[in-house]
Amino acid sequence: MSRATSESGTRLLLIGPPGAGKGTQAARLAELLGVPAVSTGDIFRWNVKNETELGLQAKAFMDAGQYVPDSLTNAIVHDRLQEADAGAGFLLDGYPRTTEQVSELDRLLHSDGTHLDGVVQLVADRDEVVSRLLKRADEQGRSDDTEEVIRHRLALYDEQTAPLIEVYGRRGLLIEIDGLGPVDDVTDRIVAQLVERGILPGDGESAAS
Ligand code: AMP
């Protein structure tokens, strides 16, 4: 398996609607890149499950399919990215989701003297994501995967998060990927794009070069 070569590590975002397969791809890419996958959704779910103060504050928003307020969300990302394992890069899954979160991430990266290497956008057809989310609701019993809440989460994505695609597009960071089809195919498409941009070494290149 190839690994990222950069001494300073790789910093990527994964963006796309709920149900586009971000979590699955994040875990695979993080492994390939040798960086931690940081999912704000997972952090919130862990806190809800363990009934922490943060979990208690986040739960009502999550159950209603709303975004957790920026102040809370920015604080957990700030803390998580200070941890030692994120010092040499990270893959953020599900953050930022609002323009205020983009500004906060810009501030964090700037104060660390680092920058994003790319923003992977998983593009998936609306009917497909709804049916994936309903299937996941059946399999995992997530309390935010009822049909009504799913519709609300998608509307919120369109209103608050889809505009970020344009923001990162203007910065020349966007890597658009067709998120439909078998999981392995989607990973292959992402890897090919990362290799093309020099973010991952290509086949035959030495990881030490
Ligand atoms: P996810 O697993 O990424 O779909 O996140 C599940 C839920 O956690 C979302 O529906 C939100 O309620 C909350 N959440 C996760 N990430 C964020 C974020 N960046 N901003 C606000 N709320 C978030």
UniProtKB/TrEMBL annotation:
SUPFAM superfamilies membership: P-loop containing nucleoside triphosphate hydrolases
Keyword S-adenosyl-L-methionine: no
EC number annotated for this UniProt entry: 2.7.4.3
Gene Ontology cellular component list: cytoplasm
GO molecular function: AMP kinase activity; ATP binding
Domain of life the protein comes from: Bacteria
Residues given in the record as AMP binding sites: T40, R45, Q66, Y67, V68, G94, Y95, P96, R97, Q101, R142, R153
A Pfam family that the UniProt record links to this protein: ADK
Coiled-coil region list: none
Family under the similarity heading: Belongs to the adenylate kinase family.
Domain notes: Consists of three domains, a large central CORE domain and two small peripheral domains, NMPbind and LID, which undergo movements during catalysis. The LID domain closes over the site of phosphoryl transfer upon ATP binding. Assembling and dissambling the active center during each catalytic cycle provides an effective means to prevent ATP hydrolysis.
NCBIfam families assigned to the protein according to its UniProt record, in alphabetical order: PRK00279.1-3, PRK14527.1, PRK14528.1, PRK14531.1, PRK14532.1
Name assigned to this protein: Adenylate kinase
Species this protein is from: Compostimonas suwonensis
Lineage, opening ranks: Bacteria, Bacillati, Actinomycetota, Actinomycetes, Micrococcales
Gene label: adk
